[in-house]
Specification:
single chain, alpha/beta, Rossmann fold, five-stranded parallel beta sheet, 8 helices, 46% helix, globular, Sulfotransfer_4, Sulfotransferase family protein, P-loop_NTPase
């Protein structure tokens, strides 16, 4: 690594895991999410973040999107990546994966614990975050990029931004429903092939 850090500052369920996997392929030491269940996350997050930032090269998922201003000041020359996703598909994914489960982290970020019943609050926070990030990094293309994996972005855009060679592997897409369905179908076909014929 050249010493610069990479902060993935898109909200969770925007392709953060896929981006983390891609950065790992490129040789970065990646961490996140961090402190999700810390009941005092708001008080502890700065100390935790600085400690982790000394040990890793790249940072994804919570709490990193909330800390982009602080990280930009503390680590000049770092790279910041905002992963994007359509608001409606994003909130559907939030509800599907988190439902009525609450965490201190989500309570801190959104002001409410779970997405179910709080869809408007979640979407407003999500969209406000994206607007503020775009405003903060405007006219800084050397430090900032947006990445929309749902729209076909992948290795080419990421590696151009980071100054890396494109690896000879498929871009890792994590947590995609289509991927899960393909895996389930594969296991079902394997089961059918291995199933013993009926007696008689």
């Amino acid at each position: 690594m050249d010493g610069s850090k990479v902060f993935c500052i898109g909200f969770h369920k925007t392709g953060t895991t896929s981006l983390a996997n891609a950065l790992t392929v490129l040789g970065y030491r990646v961490t996140g999410p961090n402190g999700v269940r810390d009941p005092k996350i708001e008080q502890n997050v700065q100390t935790m973040a600085i400690d982790l930032a000394e040990k890793f090269d790249a940072f994804q998922d919570n709490p990193w999107p909330i800390l982009y201003r602080e990280m930009d000041l503390r680590f000049p020359g770092s790279k910041f990546i905002l992963t994007l996703r359509d608001s409606e598909s994003w909130i559907k994914s939030q509800i599907k994966h988190f439902g009525e489960k609450e965490t201190p982290m989500r309570r801190w970020i959104y002001g409410v614990g779970c997405p179910v019943g709080n869809e408007t609050t979640y979407i407003e926070r999500f969209e406000r975050h994206n607007r503020e990030v775009l405003e903060h990094f405007k006219d800084r293309p050397e430090d900032f990029m947006t990445l929309d994996l749902s729209n076909g972005d992948g290795w080419e855009e990421l590696c151009r931004f980071l100054g890396k060679d494109v690896p000879d592997v498929e871009f890792p897409h994590a947590n995609k429903a289509a991927d899960r369905e393909r895996k389930q179908s594969s296991w079902l076909r394997m089961f059918r092939r291995l199933r013993l014929p009926k007696a008689g």
